[in-house]
Amino acid sequence: MAFVDLSFPDELERFGVSTTLDCFNCGTCAAICPLIYEHFPRQMIRYAQIGARDRILENGVELWRCLHCGLCTQTCPREANPGELILGLRRYVLHHWRRDGHVPS
Prior knowledge:
By secondary structure, this protein is mainly α. Helices cover 47% and strands 0% of the residues. The chain has six helices and no strands. α3 (42-50) packs across α6 (82-100). 30% of the residues are buried. The mean pLDDT is 88.
């Protein structure tokens, strides 16, 4: 079960993300993403918006699939900068993995 924490977007600011709530889940990023078949990055953005920390950490390895090609950021109608959000989530996940001694498989 995922726990929701609506203050999580504020916490992400420590990791360089200031646009978490700018996304309104239109799906443009998912439509242009080369990883579309996996609903990426839309799924991770939604996890960040609702503060589903456990889901982000459980699926943290997925963040490194992002090619950081910039297509999502270029096409975002809200200028929510999804690529930068993914990078911030990477920093968040690394911070917690290091703290907890987690080694991804």
